Amino acid sequence: MSRYSRHIILPEIGKKGQDKLANAKVLVIGAGGLGCPVLQYLAAAGIGTIGIVDFDVVDESNLQRQILFGTTTLGKNKALAAKERLTDINPQVAIITYPEALTHKNAITIFEQYDIVVDGTDNFDTRYLINDAAIITHKPLVYGAIYKFEGQVAVFNYKNGPSYRCLFPTPPKKGSLPNCSEVGVLGVLPGIIGTLQANEVLKITLEIGTVLSGKIHYYNALTTQSYTLNLDRNQSAIDLVLKKKHTFSKQEDASFVCDNAIKEITIQEGLRLENTLFIDIREASELPKINQLPHIQIPVRELENRISVIKTNQIIIIFCQSGIRSKKAIQILQQNNIHDCYSLIGGALAIEKHYKLKLTTEKTSQK
Amino acid sequence: MLSEITQCPEETYVFTQTKVSDLLEELFEKYPLLKEKNFQVAQNCKIINAESIIKETEIALLPPFAGG
Fold it and tell me: In this predicted model, what pLDDT tens digit does every residue of B2-57 receive, in sequence order?
């Protein structure tokens, strides 16, 4: 047990405390700027089970702050890449990965399997989804958020304490507040805020110290000023969430709300169609590269400007890494009156798998 | 985030008996862009509502952040 000896010699922790950590199950949503330091310290501390939810892939622009990743993990799914690194840090930790987006549909089922939920996401839609699911499943929520040089930390929904909605009852207007990729962020800031979040998880689990519940802590990296504000529970804001408890999993996820339903297609079905145009809407640097399937590449952020390359008589099949961004792309196409378009189920990963399988079958049949 | 609009980290106001909503009105007049922003008001490190009375104290404005 020399791995945890510096914990165990602390009278506040001891063998008993270390066992509490080993028995704890913590879910971290978002393996980004905040998620990386949270995950790193929770794994090192010996939290027994850690769940990681992230649909996104590692991009070079992440490496300035997302310290679990490196040049060898570019293009990989963040939850899977984080697991690799964390297993090296501490192989005794059971790490469960969810390389998918958190949605109203899957949130409750996932939350129910954990004791504590950590919010390391980068958008309000998911933050409110996490808060509401934490209220419904009675899980303490360790919240962290950052903006340029400033950060906030709080523990919500802990022993009848306030929730995020008691502070900010409704999400700000869409697009009224930018995220990191739009305005930039000091690389060390999520390290500081994420480490504070990890500390709250340890205090809750060990039942020591004072948990940051009923408070929100604010930190400014430029002035090194910080203050802690007290806030009250707003029962009516919480009751509003609980009222929707039974229909929660059927609620639509904000980012995918669209007038026209998004049609999905498998790679096998797509290949059987004629006059199709496959479009890879990932960034050029993303892996796996698709070589076998004829396609064009237009990153989703350029799609609107390059829409003229698409001929209207073609059937468009969009793919990204896993199928999330392609839904966004479909919305853009639909807004531009291109309706004969599909999102490829499973994205580039499904294409790669299809051709690998085909190769194996061909090899086998040659024998 | 909000000090990007006000261009200063803090300011002093002199009032006799005023409500949070009165202070906000004054701030919005001086900094119209603040009106677009979503934030909460704290007095002496305690989040308060628009009807609360402001005493001779420190007031802080807290916006939500999305980033992670």
Answer: 988 898 888 888 877 789 999 999 999 999 999 888 999 999 999 998 889 988 78
- Which of A175-189, A239-253, A319-333, A336-350 is modeled with the greatest confidence? A239-253
With an 8 Å Cβ cutoff, are A229 and B46 in contact? yes
**Domain hosting residue B42, numbered range:** 2-62
Question: How far is Cα A326 from Cα A183, in angstroms, rounded to an integer?
Answer: 24
CB A302 within 8 A of CB A323: no
Residue B20 lies in a domain: yes
Would B37 be classed as within a structural domain?
Answer: yes
Answer yes or no: is B7 within a domain. Answer: yes
Mean pLDDT, residues A84-102 taken together: 97
Cβ–Cβ gap A32/B68 under 8 Å: yes
Coil/strand/helix, residue A71: helix
- Domain with residue B56: its CATH number is 3.10.20.30
- Give this complex's ipTM: 0.88
Question: A27 by DSSP, 3-state: which?
Answer: strand
Q: How far is CA B47 from the centre of its chain?
A: 11
Both structure tokens of A311: 């001929």
CB within 8 Å of chain B, chain A residues 225-284: 227-232
> Is B68 domain-assigned?
no
Among A192, A240, A241, CA closest to A217: A192
Put simply, the answer to whether A122 touches B1 (Cβ < 8 Å) is no
Is the pTM higher than 0.80? The answer reads: no
Domain total in chain B = 1
